Amino acid sequence: MQKENLKKYNEKEIESLFSNLSLPSYRAKQLIHWIYKKFVNSIDEISEFSKSLRQNLSERYYIGQIKLIKRTKSSDGTEKFLWELEDNEQIESVLIPDKNRLTICLSSQVGCPLKCKFCLTGRIGFKRNLMAWEIVDQFIQVSKLLQSEDKKITNIVFMGMGEPLLNFENLVDALWRFKNFINFSPRRITLSTAGIIPAIKELPYKAPPVKLAISLNASDEKTRDYLMPINKKYPLVELIKTLKEYPLKAGQRITFEYVMLKNINTSEEDAYRVASLLKGIPSKINLIPFNPWEGCKLKTPDYDAIFEFQNILISKGFSVFLRRSKGKDILAACGQLKAYYSEKEK
Ligand code: SAH
Fold first, then answer.
1. What pLDDT, on a 0 to 100 scale, did the predictor assign at position 338?
2. What is the DSSP letter of 258?
3. For the whole model, what pTM was predicted?
4. Coil, strand or helix: which one is 153?
5. pLDDT of the residue at 340
6. At residue 111, what are phi and psi to the nearest 5 degrees?
7. Ligand 1: distance of its center to the CA of 288 in Å?
8. Three-class SS string for 53-85?
9. Which residues contact 51 (CB under 8 A, 6 or more apart)?
10. Could you say which residues of the chain have pLDDT below 50?
11. Residue 92 catalytic?
12. DSSP alpha helices (H): ranges in 181-267?
């Protein structure tokens, strides 16, 4: 009989599994604690369970894990983790230290179907959605590695490989596990999307209250159609309308990411158009100078152009930050993740 991975189960499923085995519900809580707080990778390590209970469980179940293939460190401290999944697919996560923060950038899919022009992950195409446990396990395995360094992850961003809102059900399941199993505050989780409108509408009613980031990247439909083909399905006007209706609590803002591409989306007119699009939306704008990759003809603008763009938006009253991407030397910066495809092509 094939053993089942206990990480595949959500809270309700674990509870019913234990009640089917005629075990008290506190046992289910203990299991969750050992997997999600103590990061054990085998049933045998759960010393709170009697030997017979461990044996009993081990006959039918195991605790799965994603397997670390490679850990690379950038000169700026950013680290990239390459993982192998049980079906031999591979994904990457990035760990970004910044002052008193330690942020993990998680992948939500193997590859990505969106084919944004500037993003390397899009180039490799889409393989499959990650299961909830594979999303959470990136956090668990990195946290386990960090234990020996006495470090803890403080923030989570869904800005790795994939479009999280095209993997809605598993994503929502993972977000609840972060909140309820790991006690990780949803306020320290940012979900970045290319703008999957129906999922943006559903999110506040289905998921814990995480922060929302939108990859804007253009100020008009034509340019956005070109850069992000998903714009043909979910156009900018509709996206902005949806965001104006998005339920935000007092003090909350939506983050807008804008990849700066030379001669494409960084003119003064673009800056003024961005200002008028976002008018009335509580927002924060992150400008990300394009991170180049081999085979992509797009270019990073000069800093003068970037500062001018930033200044126009500031003069219109927006909070605008220049995000200098970290980890470029190890291809860990925004848009540079492609996992094993890099190895295979060599
Ligand atoms: N699919 C999601 C999350 C992954 S991309 C989304 O679209 O939001 C995370 C961010 O990296 C996006 O804001 C994207 O615009 C940015 N990005 C992608 N490729 C980039 C590149 N080559 N240089 C700089 N930023 C890039």
1. 74
2. E
3. 0.95
4. coil
5. 55
6. 75, -160
7. 9
8. HHHHHHHHEECCCCEEEEEEECCCCCEEEEEEC
9. none
10. 341-346
11. yes
12. 197-206, 221-227, 230-233, 236-244
Q: Which fold has domain 67-345?
A: TIM Barrel (3.20.20)
From 94, 116, 119, 203, give the residue whose CB has the most ligand 1 atoms within 8 Å, as the site to mutate.
Answer: 119
Pick from 103, 150, 166, 126: which is nearest to 323 by CA?
103
| Helix orientation angle between 25-36 and 11-20, rounded to the nearest 10 degrees | 130
Q: Using an 8 Å Cβ cutoff, are 256 and 283 in contact?
A: yes
Residue in this structure with the two tokens 């299991």, named with its chain if needed: 31
Beta-strand pair 90-98/79-84: antiparallel
What 3-state class would DSSP assign to 293?
Answer: coil
At the topology level, CATH places domain 4-62 in: DNA polymerase; domain 1 (1.10.150)
Please indicate whether residue 124, judged by its CB atom, sits closer than 6 Å to ligand 1. no
What are the extents of the domains in the chain? 4-62, 67-345
Map residue 221 onto helix, strand or coil. Answer: helix
> Catalytic residue at 119?
no
Name the residue among 239, 228, 237, 253 with its Cα closest to residue 201: 239
Report CA(204)–ligand 1 centroid distance (Å).
22
Does 118 contact ligand 1 (Cβ within 6 A)?
yes
